[in-house]
Amino acid sequence: MEKAENRTTTYQPRLLLVDDDPAMVRIIGEMLAEFPNQRFAVTGEAALALARESIPDLILLDANLPNMTGFDVCEILKNDAKLARVPVIFITSHDAPALEVDAFRMGAADYVIKPLAAPRLQARVRAQLRLRHRVMEAQAAKPATTKPTGVRVLGILEDDMIEMHRRALEAIGALDLVKDCETALRLAQTREPDAIVLDARCCDNPCNAVRTLLAELAHVPIVVLADARDAETEQCTLDAGAADVIAKPAKSAVLQARVQGVLTSARQAREELRALMESAGGASVHPFPVIVRDTRTA
């Protein structure tokens, strides 16, 4: 297992934890103790009031709130110009693909099913915070270029995954398919992808594969397909920089929704950077301090 190291920083991301069960709020808060800047709400109305009072960097939202459900709260957030770009991680006891797809279509950044495991939740929170920072940092350092319109997805997939998910990935945009990371990197030099879908079986060490890809394509979100029982690969690829890990076997509708979700998160980070640059009159802006763990080989 890869070990994560803390990087000293003066900035702490603001988390908003929302669950109608105070005991669950406390448990989630303790699981995420590495992020001490936390605020709590037990109703949707209170969550919206807190978010408007001080815009959080990430919201963890119970789907099953009384009166105003988590889906209601998310819809209001995504229709609020000041809060629309805040990533929302749904926390739910419903392991239902249809609800998961609906959550991503509504604008969710992730969908985590209870019971919660601390390492998994921590890795997914770090992944969301890291994606926003990395995309903004890479975009700020990248020379201004004209990119072809439309979305391009690069799949590093075994034959069975191609057969199962080709149609769903083609529904997102243009699709390039390869079977190893070296070929993927060569192809990306001429056809830069907007997202990468990596089957963990296509490489001996998927965690190192994620690092290698991000070393050249830091602004491109990577979605990893890993066996549902392989918690170690899920955690280490997220800590290596993957934007999401999807448990196999996955329904094509879920894969499509999750890939579109990371594309939306990356687009919102770029929009946030542009807004910051414009508000600064074009001056150089370091938009978001490094606030999550970097991963180094143990």
What are the salient characteristics of this protein?
298 residues; Rossmann fold; 2 domains; five-stranded parallel β-sheet; 12 strands; 18% strand; globular; disordered N terminus; disordered C terminus
Topology:
Layout: E1 3-5, E2 15-18, H1 22-31, E3 38-41, H2 44-53, E4 58-62, H3 70-78, E5 88-92, H4 97-106, E6 110-113, H5 118-141, E7 152-156, H6 159-170, E8 174-178, H7 181-190, E9 195-199, H8 206-216, E10 222-227, H9 231-240, E11 244-248, H10 252-279, E12 294-296
Parallel strand pairs: 2-3, 2-4, 4-5, 5-6, 7-8, 7-9, 9-10, 10-11
Antiparallel strand pairs: 1-12
Helix pairs in contact: 2-3, 4-10, 5-9, 5-10, 6-10, 8-9
Organism: Caballeronia novacaledonica
GO biological process, one term: regulation of DNA-templated transcription
Modified residues (4-aspartylphosphate): 62, 199
Provide structural commentary.
The protein is an alpha/beta fold and 298 residues long. The chain folds into 2 domains: 3-139, Rossmann fold, CATH 3.40.50; 144-279, Response regulator (Rossmann fold, 3-Layer(aba) Sandwich), CATH 3.40.50. 45% of the residues lie in helices and 18% in strands. It is built from 10 helices and 12 strands. The chain has helices spanning 22-31, 44-53, 70-78, 97-106, 118-141, 159-170, 181-190, 206-216, 231-240, 252-279, and strands spanning 3-5, 15-18, 38-41, 58-62, 88-92, 110-113, 152-156, 174-178, 195-199, 222-227, 244-248, 294-296. The strands form 3 sheets. It has a 5-stranded parallel sheet with strand order 3-2-4-5-6, sandwiched between helices. Helix 4 packs parallel to helix 10, helix 5 (118-141) crosses helix 10 and helix 6 (159-170) packs across helix 10 (252-279). The protein starts with a strand and ends with a strand. 41% of the residues are buried. Residues 1-9 and 282-298 have low confidence and may be disordered.
